[in-house]
Write the C-alpha cells for this entry.
Amino acid sequence: MAAVLSGEADIGFMGPETTVYTYNEGSADAVVNFAQLTQRAGNFIVAREKTDDFKLSDLKGADVLGGRAGGMPKWCLNTY
C-alpha cells in the first residue's frame, strides 16, 4: 500500500483491510480492490506440538498470535 500511495507502484498486492484503513484515514487517492486471488482466506494455524484431533474450540483460553493487529488472520480469529 505504501508503494501505491507514494506513486512507486501502480498496482499492489494486498488484502482488503489495507484498503479500508486507507479510506478511513481520509486518503485523497482511494485505492480500489479489483481482483480476488484466492477462493478462501488462506489462513492457517500452526502449533508447537502435534495435536491429532484438533478442533477450533481447542483454542478457547489459549494464547494465539494472529498476525498484525487488524489484519485478516486476526479478524478471522475474532469469531472464536
